[in-house]
Every structure is written in C-alpha cells, then in structure tokens.
Amino acid sequence: MADPASLINWSLLALEPPGWGGVLLKGLMNSIVIAIGGYTFGLVLGIGGAVGKLYGGPITRDLMECYTTIVRAVPELVLILLLYYAGTDLLNHLLGLFGFSEVDISGLAAGIFVIGIVQGAYSTEVLRGAIKAVPAGQIEAARAYGMSPTKVMTRITLPAMLPYAIPGLSNLWLIATKDTALLAVVGFSELTLVTRQAAGATKAYLLFFCAAGALYLALTLVSDFVIKIIERRARRGFVEQS
Amino acid sequence: MTGKNAARKENQGNCFHAFETGILPLAGRSFMTIPAQAIAVSQLHKRFGPLEVLKGVSLTANQGDVIAIIGGSGSGKSTFLRCINMLELPTAGTVTIHGETIAMKKDGRGGQMPADRKQVERLRTQLGMVFQSFNLWQHMTILQNVIEVPVHVLGKSKAEAIETAEALLRRVGLFEKRDAYPAFLSGGQQQRAAIARALAIQPLVMLFDEPTSALDPQLVGEVLTVIGDLAKEKRTMILVTHEMKFARNVANHIVFLADGVIEEQGPPDEIFGSPKSEKLKRFISSIH
Fold first, then answer.
1. Which 19-48 residues of chain A touch chain B by CB within 8 A?
2. Do B140 and A145 touch (CB under 8 A)?
3. Closest CB from B121, B135, B182 relative to A140
4. Predicted confidence band at B194 (pLDDT cuts at 50, 70, 90)?
5. Domain coordinates in residue numbering, chain B
6. How far is CA A241 from CA A139, A235, A238, B111, in A?
7. Nearest-neighbour CA in chain A from B34: distance (Å)
8. The domain B2-126+203-287 belongs to what CATH superfamily?
9. Beta-carbon separation of B181 and A237 below 8 A
10. Confidence check on the interface: ipTM exceeds 0.90, yes or no
11. Which pTM value belongs to this model?
12. CA angle at B13 for the pair B11 and B14, rounded to the nearest 5°
C-alpha cells in the first residue's frame, strides 16, 4: 500500500473507465464551450455598451454606467449565485404569471449567460477605451466621404480600434476560461467540478488537481498562440517600435 | 437598395446636364447659369462658444474654378472649408452644392443642424476632401483606402473600383505602393494617396484643407505638383493654403480671409500685385 511507485497511479487518468481521463476532458470541453459562449455574448454586450456610453443619449449612458459599475463592483461568485438561483426563480415566476409551467434552465445556457453578463461589463470599458484611441481624423474622413454613422462604425471605427482593444480583450478571454471554474458552485460539470469528483472518488487529489492545472495551462498556451496571430494581423498597418 | 440606386442615377443625370449647360458660359463668371455653380455659400457664420470665427462669409465656386483661400492663422479659413461639407456645423448661413441647398433646422441651442442626415451624406459624396493630416484609414492598404468609398458608399463593383483606383494611383505615382499600409509611407506619399482617394469618388469639387502644412519642406513639392496638375485640367477646387506662390500660380481666384470676414478677393495678380486693404498688405509683406 505504501509502495512509492504507486504514489501516482497514472492509470487513473485513462480515458476509459475506471480511468477518469475522459471525464476530465469532457469537463474541459464544457469549460471551453462556456468560455467561448460567454466571451462572445460578452463581446456583443461590450460593443453595445461601449457604443452606448460613447454615442448614446443621457439615459442610455446612465444605464450603461449602472451596468458596468454594478457588475464590476459585485464579486463574480456572488453574481453567479445571484443570476443563477435568483434568475431561475424570477424566470419561473414570470412564466407562472403568464400561465406557463416551470422550466429547468440548463446549466450550459445559464453559465454562458452569467459569464457573458460579467464579461460584457469589462469589455465595455476595454472597447470604450479602444474606440477613443482611434485618431479622430480617420472618423472625420469617413464622415466627410458620406458614410452613414453605421457605416463609419462597421467599416472604420470597429476595425481601427481592434489593435488597441486586443491586449485588453485577450486578458478578458483568459479570465473567461478561468471564470468557468466558478460555475462549479451551481453544479455545472465543468473541469473544476469533475476534477473534484474524480479526486474525491479516488482520493488521488494531487494527481487530479495537477492534471486539471495542466489542462488549464494548455488552454492558456493555445489561446496565447492564437491571440498572437490575431494581434499580428490587427497590427499589420502599424509601424512597430523596436 | 433599388431606390438608392435610382436616386443616385438621377443625381448623375443632373450632373451631366449641368456640365452641358455650364460649358457655354464658362468665359464670363457673371453669365453663369445656376446649375454651373458648383458651390454657393451664403452668409456663413460660425461661433465656437463666445468666439465668432466666421462673421458672414459668402463665396461662389463655379465649375472649373480654382479658388485659393489665404489668411493668417485663426482667420477662419479651415473652419470655412469644413463648413462646406458640414464637418463643422455653421451657426447661420446656407451652403448650396450643385444647386441643392443643404436643409438646416434649429438645434435648440442657438445654432443649426442639418435637417436631413441622408441629404448631407449624399452631397458629401460630391466633395472630395483632402485633409492637412491625410487621415488615411490606417487599417487598410493604400488601394483599399482608395476603393473604400466607391465600393461601400457609392455601391460600385469592386472590380470597377479597383480599375479606377489603380489608374489614379498610377497617376499620383503610387501604383507600386498600392498594397502598403499608410503608416509605412512618407507624408508626401500619404497625401498623394489621400488625393487619389478623393479623386476616386469623382467629386464635383475638391476641397483641400492645408494639404501641405503637415509635410516636411522637401515633400511639399511632390504634393503641389499633383494638385497643380488637377488645376490644369480645370477641376473645380477650393484650396486653403499657406503656399502663396503656389496659390498665385494655380488659382484663378484668391480669397483673403481676416478676422472671419472676406477682407479682399480677386484674381491672383491683383491680390498679390496690388493689394488694396491694409490687412492684406501687411499679410503679404509678412510672408515674404
């Protein structure tokens, strides 16, 4: 039993049961799906929020300000608990009012929604800063040539702000991949939760948490690689300072 | 989409018609018929807070006119040019482009604003603006900069736009640089690309806002050569400039702005040869 060679029982990581490798990978997949979904949803919210804050009327601006302030003020764990439990409750109440039967919200949809709301607040600020960094003359030139405000936004402002936004947005992506771990508290089978289950069932805590750590690291390294490619592409119009 | 195209066609129709009617009376300014007026600005006022920059400036540019606006810094000449395409909103006064007056409404703060955004956008596509600091779109190559408006605003096909753009780039001597990004070009090259971008929309009038002021002295010449060539082919242009010798050579009409009003205007030889007003005399002696 105390054989040092069996301190680490690698067979526990086998993909097929009784190994837990397959379960871990499935958890990682769930984490990635939520991160991508939440990040994308957050980007959409962020573009809307940034445009609203910069160009909206006073009411829109105030609403956006409330959104970003509140979401960034409350710990994400609290937000997740709040939005998941209170949100489900509220939705079912509303459905009940209109005579529908209660629904069970899928963990996936709830996870994407919650991560998206949190990410949206942060990306609003990242994108707002990036849009403001676009030289005013380029937007002026677009207007001078008869572009409508929508055209100016889609053809000039958004592509031109990308180089300024990418460092902040890549941070947010990496945070999103790790925020998925918080969804363990609402019982969603993402990587952290399945790791805890595997470790609990086999008592091989060190092995499984190190394995999960390695998976998170791998995800980050792959992300970094992709981000570098995107950044190089976005900055191709820039003379790089050396 | 079809509606938009139809409107555009009608517009082009007007344009050709105007050119035809404009050809005969080209000799004498006073005989010009209304459609031959490319731009007519009437009693333009512009106020920035307590500061009144333009105090009632009127100017008419007929087809084929090359008008140079000169004046000291702060005289309001750039503001005037920017009011023509509504980049600055005039506090009072009207702007008429090719016989069509830009409809304005009160903005509730003592100024005015365009009543119809679409009208302004449509009329802007007839004005090719060249900026002091080039303002090329940094995320696009030179060729993409030149085809951007023809393709995405005027609705031309990409192939057609590229063909026109390449001819224009050849003309300003930048064909080899068509796939480079603006930041990798010299100021003079960027400004020549910006001129090609303006020409690509086949504008009724070219507006130049101090096109050489941001350039190193040795790069000014190449840009002035391009602008001078445009003047030679009787392209209608309004040019705000500090290059007095150049203004004298290419313009057929000089406007001297001082303290927000037209202090003096006339043919270049008169303005530079025998200035009448004290301010103009002082201005001319100060630049020599």
1. none
2. no
3. B135
4. very high
5. 2-126+203-287
6. 25, 12, 9, 45
7. 24
8. P-loop containing nucleotide triphosphate hydrolases (3.40.50.300)
9. yes
10. no
11. 0.81
12. 65
